[in-house]
Amino acid sequence: MLETLITSKTRIKILLKFFINPNARGYLRELAKEMNESTNSVRVELDKLVEAGYLEKEGEKNKVFYRANVKHKLFPEIHNLVKKYLGIDVLIDNVLQNIGHLKEAYLIGDYAEGKDSGIIDIVLIGRIDENYLIQLIKKAEQLLDRKIRYIILTENEKKKYEKPLNLKNGVAVWKEIL
To answer: 25-34, 49-58, 107-116, 121-130: lowest mean pLDDT where?
Structure first.
C-alpha cells in the first residue's frame, strides 16, 4: 500500500519507525543498522523529512537524534496511515473491542519501536474471554498477514510486570473510557 505512494523503501522504514510510536527517537548510525540501509540513504531521507517539517532533530552530546514532529498538522493523518499499513486499526476494531472487559491495551516489542517484523506483541489488561480472543486473533492474523502474540494481565499484574514488559515505551492502543 505505502510502496505505491512512497517509492523510497528507506523513507517508508523511517516513517514506520517514528510515526507508529511518537516517543521513538534514533540517530543516524543506529537507524541505518536497524533498517539494514546505508547511512547515506538514511541521511538523505532524514534530511528531506526534517526539511518538510515531519521530523525534528536535536543534538545530544556528539549525536543528532531524530523524532516525529507531533506538532506538524499532518502528524495525526500520517500516524493513522502507518497504523492502517501495519494493520493495527484492524486489530483494534476486530479484536480489542469485543473480548470482554478490556481496561487497556499496549503494543510492545518491534512494532512499538516502529519495526515491521511480522509479529505483533500486545499486552491486554482486564478480564478477557481468552477463548473468544483466540478465535479473533486467528482471523486478524489472516487479514493482517502477521502473527499476533498476546499477554493478558489483571490490573494488579500490570503493576508487577510494567517494568519487565517495558510498557512505558509501549504504544497505548486502547484505554477504557470511564
So the answer is: 107-116
pTM passes above 0.70: no
Does the pLDDT of residue 22 top 70, yes or no?
Answer: yes
Name, in order, each residue with C-beta under 8 angstroms of 164's C-beta and a sequence gap of 6 or more: none
- State how beta strands 147-153 and 25-27 pair: unpaired
* Other CB atoms within 10 Å distance of the CB of residue 19: 24
> Facing residues of 27 across strands?
65
Helix (H) or strand (E) holding 57: strand 55-60
Q: How far is CA 49 from CA 11, 42, 67, 104, 177, in A?
A: 8, 11, 10, 33, 35
* 55-60: strand order across its sheet: 25-27, 63-68, 55-60
**What is the number of other CB atoms lying within 10 angstroms of the CB of residue 35?**
21
Q: How many CB atoms lie within 10 A of CB 66?
A: 24
Q: What is the spatial distance between Cα 15 and Cα 79, in angstroms, rounded to a whole number?
A: 9
Domains and CATH numbers, the chain: 2-76 (1.10.10.10), 87-175 (3.30.460.10)
Q: pLDDT (tens digit, 9 = 90+) per residue, 28-54?
A: 998 888 888 899 999 999 999 999 999
Q: What are the C-alpha distances in Å from 128 to residues 124, 132, 152, 162?
A: 8, 9, 7, 18
